Amino acid sequence: MTRIAEHLSRAQEVVSRCQSLARFTEDPPRICRTFLSPPMRGCHGQIAEWMRPLGMRVTLDAAGNLHGLYPGADGISHRLLIGSHLDTVPDAGAYDGILGVVLAISHIESLEGRRLPFAIEVVGFSEEEGVRFGIPFIGSRALVGRLDAELLGRRDSNGVSIQEAILSYGLQPSEIPAASLQEGVLGYLEFHIEQGPVLEHRELPLAIVEAIAGQTRMELVFTGFANHAGTTPMALRRDALVAAAEWAVAVEKGAREIPGLVATVGTLQAKPGATNVIAGECRATLDVRHASDTARAQSVSGILHSAAEIAKRRGVSLTSSTTFVQAATPMDAFLVSEIDKAISQTGITPYRMVSGAGHDAMVLAEKVASAMVFLRSPGGISHNPKESVLVEDVAKAIECGLHLLDQLAVSPEFQMRAHRA
Ligand SMILES: [Zn+2]
Asked: Tens of pLDDT along 358-392?
């Protein structure tokens, strides 16, 4: 078989493996697999069965993350982490997260027993989506030492705490500190579907993620005066809903003028909410994201300024509060440039983009050099059973990963990291 045919056949297997893992679900025939739910056990078992014949040592840490260690050349303890998450949203597709884990196993399979000057540790994170407990990244938080007592006390809708979920899965919460990253980790690499339309639009199979966007989420309340829709002349109204609507249009217009900015008014809730009553109050949410924290801060301040101006002109009062802030996370410059080279090697024009969504790599980047590769999402569809991936793109991801491993194996800079680690 030619090398290309080999990559295609492995890619086909990666796709079928992702589809076969879809059978481990809480809600058949739909895919739903939340933190340490019973189907997660089957998922772990299946993945371990794929790992062991490759000479990988499989373990489960106390936060429910699955680890498969492929040893490096003799006596080498430092390692490169490659992974993604094993949990899903409700009624999910078969590739978000899982693909990155299955691909990593395929990379190791493609090494055909060859040892590198570093070990490879494949990680399947227990939780990234935040579905069961309303907080995301439970798995990766454990690796960076941030799964603390307060978080362990969080309860799901059935009143079960994270701590209790861990215990009932047969794991020991007291061992969580031991799950945190030990010395010798050289970096973290994550392959993930793009979950958006950019690569399809550009007709590219892969992209390098150079940063994960920072976010600001806010709530704004416009307060006018509720009054009779029939008897109050247009000029004498203080309509909170129309003020919020004018502002939402201004948010969209402003965001289009700043490259790389996305700003969304996702909800408008008018009160009292009747056909024949002018809205006296309107609550709005705002979500602003950008790779640059400065650009994001400036745009948030511009958006608030415009809300104040619109409210004043319409005789409506305004309050605002920030509900969530996350700084932008640049990916590791060295790994980004190595991925750039690896993608070139596959004959694809390297394209760098910003991830608008959060990922485990964002959390890992607190402690280790991290980077991501995106695969094209056909139709830009994700978090939906129609989510898919092209076999040819997966083959390119396998090829890109192998080039990257070869480059890192001979990179003086990467070896220097090993000395420091
Ligand atoms: Zn994901």
From this structure: 999 999 999 999 999 999 999 999 999 999 999 99
Expressed in angstroms and rounded, the spacing between residue 191 Cα and the centre of ligand 1 is 10
Q: Residue 382 Cα, ligand 1 centroid: separation in angstroms?
A: 9
* 3-state secondary structure string across 202-244: HCCCEEEEEEECEEEEEEEEEECCCEECCCCCHHHCCCHHHHH
What mean pLDDT is predicted for residues 271-292? 97
* Ligand 1 center to 63 CA (angstroms): 18
What's the one-letter identity of residue 42? G
Q: By the 8 A CB rule, do 188 and 81 touch? A: yes
- Cα–Cα distance, 344 to 399 (Å, whole number): 11
Ligand 1 centre to CA of 159 (Å) is: 26
Partnered with residue 80 across adjacent β-strands are 120, 187
The H or E element spanning position 285 is strand 281-290
Q: Is the pLDDT of residue 421 over 70?
A: no
pLDDT digits (tens, 9 = 90+) for 239-263: 999 999 999 999 999 999 999 999 9
* Contact status, residue 330 vs residue 352, Cβ threshold 8 Å: no
Q: What are phi and psi of 16, to 5 degrees?
A: -65, -35
pLDDT of 150 over the 70 cut: yes
- What pTM did the predictor assign? 0.92
C-alpha to C-alpha distance for 127 and 160, rounded to whole angstroms: 16
Please check whether residue 214 is in contact with residue 290, taking contact to mean a CB–CB distance below 8 angstroms. Answer: yes
User: CA–CA separation, 9 vs 355, rounded Å?
Assistant: 29
What are the angstrom distances between the C-alpha of 233 and each of 238, 245, 272, 333, 373?
11, 19, 19, 60, 57
H helix intervals, 314-411: 333-345, 360-364, 391-410
